[in-house]
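How a chain folds remains the central question behind the approach discussed here. No coordinates are needed to read the tokens, only the vocabulary itself. For completeness, the protein is quoted in full, as a sequence line and a line of structure tokens:
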Amino acid sequence: MASTFFDDSQSNLTEYTVSEISGSIKRTVEDAFGHVRIRGEISGYRGPHSSGHAYFALKDERARIEAVIWRGVFGKLKFKPEEGMEMIATGKVTTYPGSSKYQIVIDSLEPAGAGALMALLEERRRKLAAEGLFDETRKQLLPHMPRVIGVVTSPTGAVIRDILHRITDRFPVHVIVWPVRVQGETSGDEVAAAIRGFNALKPGDPIARPDVLIVARGGGSLEDLWGFNDEAVVRAAAASDIPLISAVGHETDWTLLDHVADRRAPTPTGAAEIAVPVRAELEAGLAMLSARLSGGMSRGLDGNRQKLRALARALPSIDMLLALPRRRFDESAAGLGRALRLNTANKRQVFERRAAQLTPATLQRRVLEKRQRVGELGNRAERRVDRAIDRSAARLSNAAARLTLRPATDRIARSRERLQVLAGRSGQLISLLSERRRRQLQEAARLLNSMSYRNVLKRGYAVVRDAGERAVDSAGALSAGDPVSLEFADGRVNAVTTDGTKPAPAKPAAKRPEKKAARASKDQGSLF
């Protein structure tokens, strides 16, 4: 007979759910390891997650523990995690029930000793140098005499007082201080924001835009100066359009900001000396240059004065310069009267030749020629029209004789219509030509009338003609008893000349007393 046996020790154990046992373990671990510091090498770090949290692991040669940094803590970390770096993490150990793992939730992170910091610094320096941020070719020149200087430093330390005192002694200018923390977790972000803020200022803003920037801090350890090794500070300085002077720490202290800055100063006081010149030295140099300028101008004026005098001595006198123009002027003035007379005589001869050509007979001849030309053109046009009509009629007759069908009749009709159109056009052409010739004839008649001698007769003159109806232009052409006709404006009158002899030339009056005196002397004889 079979029987069943039960273990009382197992049946009396408390029964837990998975969630209960996981929660109990979580509370036990958190109570036992509420706040711890763990040293280890970062492994599996790939940067922050899309949620802003960072997940990685800390390990040594024998063990490994998962680590997480929440988003709010990650933004405040002074040292960001990097793969392979040995770091010291401070936080609390807890478990993750979802995968039955324990992990540390990190509150702060720092390198494990100065050696780790130096290794991190060297690694960051190589990375930024490979990007070209430390190249000398990209660095800007500092202004010689800035009007406004921007200082990024703590407003309460001795650094700002040293800078202001040195600037006031050397060359007083307007100084704008952007207060920042120069030590601590937020110092790097504040310095980067200050550099970007100064560069965001525009000309004409209420706050003047600086001509040069000074980022300054006193001396300290590597940890104290770590904010100026921040990658955000280095990139802000590299992107600055305003020339930047780095004055962080003592002369032996070097940060990444010193490599990227346009100029490095050993101390904050040295930065002030680099930023502004010495006013007394400028005034002395200005006085020396002013004296040199005055001396140079005096020497230049003396040299020009001597050259002017030498050139004046080489110039000829005014009488010598004006002698040849004066002679030409006299010769031109002497020949001006004769030239005017010759010019007038030439113009008169040209005018007389033109007037001789404009005679009534010439105009009548030209009118007759134009009239004949018009008649010839009209006759030629009529003959052309007649020939065209004859040719068209002949073609029409031939076509009518050859074609007896209806298409031939239509073609004949079209030809007749075209012939009529051509006849009408020829008539219009003849009319246009006749009208054009008539207008030309009328214009010639008006010109003839305006040039006719009859207009002269209307003013009281008369034309004398001989028996051959030739115009008489001189009294010597007529003799006594010659029949003549006198044409007036209102008619003609016949007449006979009574004396056509030429008048004897008058004898000089001065010769008559001489003849009388000679005759008297001949009759009387000599008294001696």
Q: What stands out?
A: Residues 121 and 486 are 138 Å apart (CA to CA). Residues 406-451 form the longest helix (46 residues). The longest strand covers residues 86-96. Residues 1-6, 504-528 have pLDDT under 50 and may be disordered.
